[in-house]
Model the fold of this input.
Amino acid sequence: MSSMRDIKQRIANVSSTEQIIKAMDMIASTKLHKAKAQLEGVRPIYHEVKRIVEEIGSHHEFETHTFYEERQVKNSLYIILTSDRGFSGGYNANIIAKAMEHMKGKNEKILIVGSKGKEYFKKRNKNIIRKIVDIADAEVYYGSENIAKWAANLYRSGEVDEVFIAYTQFENVLSYTPYVDKLLPVVTNVTELDKSNRKYEQGIDRFIEHLIPLYLHMNLFRAFSESHTSEQAARMVSMDAAGKNASEMIEELTRMYNRRRQAAITQELSEIVGSANILNKGGTS
Amino acid sequence: MTQQLANKKINLKITTPRGVKFVEEADMIIMRCIDGDLGVLPGHAPVSTVLGDGTLRIYNGGIEKKLALFGGIAEIEDTRVNILTTIAQRPEEIDLERAELDRRQVEAKMLEESKESQADERLQVLLRRTLVRIEVSTHTENSEYSSDNYGE
Done:
């Protein structure tokens, strides 16, 4: 049985935790707002560039270009996007599980983003060839350009034969799905041939040389934005739930405290009344 | 130019990582590609091209507009021009003072380095970009472009 003072202490603890939770909730929702704006900005250009890239792939004569040709796969590069901080529900667990499942039977090389994923893959002795942690929001844009160049070079030099990206797609605040997409060689789902007879001003090879880096850059930047938005949304939702739990707990503890207080008062009262009665009886007899 | 074509306009759309930035009609546009300028009139054959660092000139109803574009891809088809680029700046978005400052710094750096070896490629890109910015930002939109080499 906890005493009244213990209960009071617990109420104080829980309410200070609640304040922290509320602050984190607020930070996450502001960040979510910003991340969403960035994501909505990058989605159109990503889809346009992707369409152009796929259109080129539908021409048979380009199937032999380095970025389009399927090679025999010896090594696969995985770019896995996780978060640096926790308190985001199942966000990291979901993307890691998805990536692990996809990696089965592959000779993997991993570029890990985010300290949560780094710890996980390090523990399991996975082949991490590059890690990026604590990246500032403002650096993401140029950072993704650098990574795009780096990945393209690895691919071109033959160190890896395919490149995958594992990210979490943001659908709405309550739903985000982990995906593993193939970046290189470019997948072309277009079955119908492009009949427009499009010409390429500087020649198709030069066009592809410029197009693919832009495509990778936009693809990575978009994947970062999707993941970042999902992370903030996940954090906001779990902080919301935690905040509700905290208020419920405070309510319950307060009720317990009041009941205990009432019991103490009643006991004291009955003691006083009882002793007064005895005294009174003694006086009249 | 046949009457039919003359009535046509180009629908220009510029998309950047910050969303669709610019949607407008135009009589003619001139863009800077990696190997020189390319002018587009309505009814152009389908062509895709790689853009370099330079000004995009948009002529519409006697007014010339300029935008700074740095790299990207342009897709041209009949009356549709679709530009995908990482940076597109309107004149009012360019900080002229900063561009001038950048230019002086880059030029100073280039002088310094050219004594030792050939100027850095990065510096040249920087210089080119600041020059484009200065050109675009000093352009006044309402100035009539000379009409003698373009339709009445």
